[in-house]
Write a structure and sequence with these properties.
The chain has 229 residues and is an alpha/beta fold. It has a single domain, classed as 3-Layer(aba) Sandwich (Rossmann fold), CATH 3.40.50. The protein has a six-stranded mixed beta sheet with strand order 6-7-8-3-9-10. A four-stranded antiparallel beta sheet has the order 2-1-4-5, with helices on one face. A hairpin with a 5-residue loop joins strand 1 and strand 2. Helix 3 packs across helix 4. The radius of gyration is 17 Å and the shape is globular. The two termini are 27 Å apart. The relative contact order is 0.19. The mean pLDDT is 90.
Length: 229
């Protein structure tokens, strides 16, 4: 499903910084994988490259048989829209839109009819436990509720790949455990390939596979312990 071949990313500024160096990685369809490592190890850079939000300095990234570096901009945009869902630590909800409207954004971009968009948004908000909050704005929600809304938005097109960058990092322990359970439930229900960047050991070990980065390199790739947070 996801393959990286000798992927490197170098940032040039006052000083050259190598964020990733010759990363070789293959992730199968339907796997749930955590990416861990100290700050500055390249975790978020790796996620951004896989999500097509940035481009590698060298190497190749293939998603579902499509080589990202070989895609024209329009095709890359469609790839992100149709095949990849993003969950961010700080939710990234539009503050002037309510839950239904936030979840509906990717569907409007696909040109769906309004009735179909409304039905899908309501279905997903019910799925993540926000059936009673559909008309609420983000600042009327708790942190956990905002993340649930963000997850519903990420799932709006039922993407085969779900990328989560510290999805519990801005939440208290109890709420974080609830969000992790929700992601696990969604993974089991939809069979999506899930990658989670995290500093939380329980989140990492709940995944079937744990990949450790250090200094831009993969230094360990092992099975998770099956913890449930």
């Amino acid at each position: 499903m996801i393959d990286l071949a000798k992927v490197s990313k170098v940032f040039n500024g006052k000083r050259q910084v190598t964020a990733l160096e010759n990363v070789e990685l293959s992730i199968g369809r339907g796997e749930m994988v955590s990416i861990v490592g100290p700050s500055g190890s390249g975790k978020s850079t790796l996620l951004n490259l896989i999500g097509g939000l940035d481009t590698p300095t060298s190497g190749k990234i293939t998603i579902d048989g499509s080589l990202l570096s070989g895609l024209p901009d329009d095709d890359l945009t469609r790839m992100r829209r149709d095949k990849i869902g993003f969950i961010f630590q700080f939710f990234n909800l539009l503050p002037t839109l309510n839950c239904i409207e936030n979840v509906s954004i990717p569907l409007h971009l696909r040109g769906w009819p309004k009735k179909k968009i409304d039905e899908r948004a309501r279905e997903l908000l019910n799925l993540v436990g926000l059936g009673g909050r559909m008309d609420h704005l983000p600042d009327e929600l708790s942190g956990g509720e905002r993340q649930r809304c963000a997850i519903a938005r990420a799932l709006s097109v039922y993407p085969p790949v779900l990328l989560a960058d510290e999805p519990t990092g801005n939440l208290d322990t109890h709420t974080g455990a609830d969000i992790l359970k929700l992601i696990r439930d969604v993974h089991a229900r939809l069979g999506a390939t899930v990658l989670i960047v995290t500093h939380d050991r329980n989140v990492a070990e709940s995944c079937g596979r744990v990949i450790t980065l250090r200094d831009g390199r993969v230094v360990e790739d092992r099975a998770g312990l099956g913890l449930t947070a």
